[in-house]
Every structure is written in C-alpha cells, then in structure tokens.
Amino acid sequence: MPRTIRSPFTAPGEQGGKWWRAALEGVGVGVPLALSEVAVHEASAGFPLPVLLVLGTAVICLFVVRRRFPASSLLGIAALLSVLLSAGLPAAMVSYGATRQMVPSRRRMLVLLGSAVLLIVLSTGLAPLIGMGGHGYGLAMGSVFATTTIIVPGLVGTAAGQQDRLLEALKERAAAAEEARRLVDSESRTHERSRIAAEMHDLVGHRLSLISLHAGGLEMALDKQAPELRDEATVVRRATGDAMRELREVLGVLGPLSRDTGTAALTDTTGTRSDIEALAEESRQVGIPVELDWDGPDLDSRSASVRRAVHRVVRECLTNVHRYATGARVAVTVRHTEERIDVEVRNGVPPKPPTASTGLGSGRGLPGLRERVGLLGGSLEAAPTAGGGFAVTALIPTEPDPNAATGDPDRPDGGGGPHENAYEAGGQGAHPSRGRQFLDRFQRRFLAALTGLLGLTGVGVMMLFGAVLVEEARVADQPVAREDPRLGMTMDEVTESVFGDSAEVRAAATGKEPPRPDFVTSCIYPTVGTEELPEWEYRYSSEGAESETTHLRITRYCFRGERLADIERFIVPLVSRTPPWETP
Asked: How many helices (H) and strands (E) are present in the chain, helices listed first?
C-alpha cells in the first residue's frame, strides 16, 4: 500500500505534494506584494528593507499553506496585515479560502471574527509605535482593512463553501437515487424473467407431458402388437422425461419457478382479441370506462411470447389506472400488421385524486414490461400527456428477435435491447465526447478565474477607497487655525506655526529689508500667505500705460538664541517693467 504524502501545500484528502503549485502561488503573490509595497511604502511605516523582506516572506508562507492550515494562516496574515498594509489582497484570498474550506460553522465564525478583532487591536496598538499615526488613525485603518479584506471575503467564502457542500450532497443523492433505480430495474427484470421462465415451463412442460403420456401409451400398445418397436417408444418416453428435468434446471437459472406468474395461467387465448376484451370488461365492471379499438387480424396465429406480452401490457396499464386514476376514461388501441403489433393505452385525468390507501405500488410494473418487450426486440415508452393523463405505447415485433433475447440487463447500455436504451437515454444521445468535456472544464475554470479576478479587483477598490477616506478624515481633523507667533516662543513653535522658512522670500528681502536689531542671532522668512500676495501698481503717461511695479509684503521673525525676539513687517518692491499687454 503506497504511503500517503502529507504535504503542507495540499488540503486534507488531496493527492500529491503540489510543490509546483505552491511555487507558482508564491511567485504570483510575491511580485504584486513587492509592487504594492513600493506604492504604499510610507503607509506601511517605511520599514527597512530587511524587515520588509521578513514580513513579505511570512505573508507568502502563510498564503501557500492556507489549504493545510486554514485557521492558522488566516490569524497569522491578519496579524501581519496590521503592520504591512500591502498584504491586503493576499489576506482577502486567505480569508475566502479558509472560510470556504472550514466545515464547522461555529469554528469558522470564531476564526473569522477573531482574525478581524486581532487586526483591529494590533493596528490600534502598534500605529504610534511604528510611526503610522495615533491610536485613532490605527483604529480607523484597522477597521477598514478588517472589513474589506477579512469579513467581506470571509462571508463570500462561507457562502461558496455552503454551495459546494450542497452541490456535493445533491450529487450524492442523485447517485444514490440512480443506484436505487438501477437496483429496482434490475430486480424488476429478474422478476419478469422469472415470470417468463415459469410461463415457458408451464407451456413447454405441458407439451412435453403430453408427449411423455402419448409415448407411454404407445409403449404399452407396442408391447402387445409390435414388441420389436417397444424399445423405441421407451426411448422417446425417457427422452421426454429427461427434457422435462433439463428444462426445469435451465429455467431455474432465470429465477425460482415458485414465484407468482400472474393472475391467470398461459392459455391458447392469452393475448388474443377475446382476451383483451375480457380485460376491458373487467375494468368496466369496477367503474373504469374503457374503449377498445382493435385494428387488424387476431393474434391467435402469433407465438405465445408475443401474445403474452400484449396481454401483460394491457393488464398492467389497466391496473395502474385502477390505482392512480380511478374513474378516468381509458382508450386501448391495438394495431396488428405483418411486421409488428402496436399497443397503446391512454387514460385521461381522473375525476378526483386517488386516495392515500391506493399506495405507491411496487415500482416494478413498467420496468418489467420494458424487459419483456425488450427481450422480444421491441420498445415501450411511458410518459404523461399534455392534457394531464398518461400514455403507454408498446411496439412489439410479430416475430421475436433472437438477438434481443440475449441482452444482459446489467450491462451499461441498459440491457433491454436498443429500444430500451433509447428510451432510458430520453433521446439525449450518447455521452459527450472528450473534446466537449475538455471544453466544458476549460469554460468552468475560465469563468472561475474571471470571477476571482473581478472579486480581487473589487476588494482592492474597497481597500483603496477606505484608506483614502481615513486619510482625508485625519487631515480634516488637524487644526486649521494655528497660534500666531508671539515674542518668547521657541524657534520650533514659530516654524510650525508659520509653515517654516522660505528661501524665495529670503532672497526677495535681501538688500531691501530694514536693519536687524543688534541682539538678533537668526531670522526666518516664512512663505507669504494669501493676504501677502504681490500688489501691482501702474503709472500712466499721456500715451497710455508705461510701466508697472510689484510690491511684496513680508514678515520677518528674528530670534535671540532659540527665542523669538523681534517681528518686523515690511513691503519690498520686486520689479519695474512694462505691462505684458504692451510687450512688442
């Protein structure tokens, strides 16, 4: 017995190690992870390259072992996602696969909610330590990623897993129902062959008994009149007895001869017109309106097996009408030609539904009829009619086909001859070819891959949208109005309040600013605000505008050491030129 390989990259029960699949998945996750990390490097706290390599490798390892360890992979990648936001898409795939694979609903929900809570808690606690903002920012970002990459894919995976298990259960039920139907049909065929064997025993045995009886009488008569021929008569009588024993042995293979062989023994009138009329009259006496339409000569010249098949078809159909459509009108049609005998029994809708006491029957009637007709080389079809009734049509050849009688009821093609197989197939033809199966399999996999790609795209859009909203909310929460600089403030406080020093403003003030006080050690020139934009003044002559002058209002903050000691505001003329519209 070969040893089962337990690979960390396969699900329980999956065959093979799947090493190549794990390698391809690792590359497929690692490349997008590296690219996304480059795109969101600052959002992931700007870790050094060795730390990023370790975190990325851990994400890849958890991803490739998600089938063998779904719960551990989901919890681990949720913890890594709290410090490595670029692992959002792999986390979504792990959440989807883990919840789809886990069967116990309580364990699945605990793992899913535990992963989401772990991500939120770690994001909230670690955000200030890794430089991603305050606790509030970490809480908001963790909640967004827990929802978009853990909860939503997990719920989708849960629904997909339930659908997979439902389809598997339906397949098992369909297989069990098919097996049960096959067993019932097989038992029905065996039962019908037992009936046929008993009928053959009754018919042939009766003939052989007559031969044996006449041979015995002949033996006694020859004993006196022609003793030299008595031995020949004895041989005939003994041969007849041997034939009787051999007949019982051969027919015993088809089934026990003691089983029920029908309501009446096989006679010379079975299946003839008078016999069918008698069956119709019996149904009329119990309240079933039956109309008989016979077209063609009588069946008394046909073989006993053909006549018995006609008798059984009509009798079984009338019995079913008694059980399931009491009171419905019945039309029995028999058409006899040189090639075949067409028997059709059609009933309408019963005036009232059958009572519960009628039962469901044994389920052997129609399969037994198909077996009997199929052994003769014919076919039988049974189906509801458009008006709500039911119709059974049997096509029976007048001369039984010897090849059809050798059919095996347990063979894959149906066992009841070509007509039987065509009926069971329902006119659908043979099984699909390998090319068709390959095309269907490729189509299913392509649609699954396309659905997964669209799902990942949706997850990525939700992640990006949520992150942008959190970032904008953080910027909007920052105070807009800053404290005005005042004497005594430190250089850092003044720099933060006036948005730092501007090299352009410093250059514009050089040589044009008021003298600095003697105690000043350094000065800064902040960027001009809206109220300090340049002003334009124009001088005009008799010929029109000649020149323009730009003035810039500047505020200078000077420090003594690290403390603000002087604030000076002044206006600096920048340029003097002709207006742009006068430029030649």
From this structure: 15, 9
- pLDDT tens digit sequence for 211-241: 777 777 777 887 777 777 777 878 887 887 7
* Own/partner long-range contacts of 316-320 (Cβ < 8 Å, ≥24 apart): 316/365, 316/366, 316/368, 316/369, 317/345, 317/347, 317/392, 318/279, 318/280, 318/282, 318/283, 318/288, 318/290, 318/345, 319/365, 320/361, 320/365, 320/390
Q: How far apart are CA 94 and CA 115, in angstroms?
A: 11
Q: Is 0.90 surpassed by the pTM of this model? A: no
SS3 177: helix
Residues 334, 295 contacting (CB under 8 angstroms):
yes
Residue/partner pairs of 381-388 with CB below 8 Å, 24 or more apart: 381/423, 385/346, 387/348, 387/349, 388/348, 388/349
Q: What is the pLDDT of residues 62-88, one digit of tens each?
A: 998 888 889 999 999 999 988 888 888
Question: How big is the CA angle at 145 (ends 144 and 148), to the nearest 5 degrees?
Answer: 85
> Is residue 383 predicted with pLDDT exceeding 60?
yes
Residue 322 in contact with residue 362, Cβ under 8 Å? no
C-alpha to C-alpha distance for 493 and 487, rounded to whole angstroms: 11
> What whole-number distance in Å separates Cα of residue 151 and Cα of residue 91?
11
Residue 70: which residues within 8 A CB-CB, separation 6 or more? 94, 97, 98, 99, 101, 102, 111
Coil, helix or strand at residue 330: strand
56 contacts 33 by C-beta, under 8 angstroms? yes
Closest CA to 392 of 380, 404, 407, 401: 380
Look at phi and psi of residue 120 and say left if phi exceeds 0, alpha if psi is from -120 to 50, else beta: alpha
Long-range residue pairs from 271-278, CB within 8 A, at least 24 positions apart, any chain: 271/299, 271/302, 271/306, 271/307, 271/308, 271/309, 271/310, 271/311, 272/298, 272/299, 272/300, 272/307, 273/298, 273/299, 273/334, 275/307, 275/311, 276/310, 276/311, 276/314, 276/332, 276/334
H/E stretch holding 569: strand 563-577
Give Cα 172 distance to the centre of its chain. 14
* 9 touches 18 (CB < 8 A): yes
Q: Is 406 exposed, middle or buried (0-12, 13-18, 19+ CB in 10 A)?
A: exposed
Q: Which two tokens stand for residue 536?
A: 């334009």
For residue 559, list its beta bridge partners.
522, 564
Q: Interior CA angle at 273 toward 267 and 277, to 5°?
A: 100
Closest C-alpha among 328, 203, 334 to residue 276: 334
Q: Are 215 and 231 in contact (CB under 8 A)?
A: no
**pLDDT tens digits, one per residue of 281-313:** 988 888 889 999 999 999 988 888 888 889 989
Q: Which long-range contacts (CB under 8 A, 24 or more apart) does 99-107 make?
A: 99/70, 99/153, 99/154, 99/155, 99/157, 99/158, 99/161, 100/157, 100/158, 100/160, 100/161, 100/164, 101/11, 101/67, 101/70, 101/161, 102/70, 102/71, 102/161, 103/161, 103/165, 107/71
**Burial code of 471-505, b = ≥16 C-beta within 10 A, e = fewer?**
eeeeeeeeeeeeeebeeebebebbbebbeebbeeb
DSSP structure class, residue 147: I
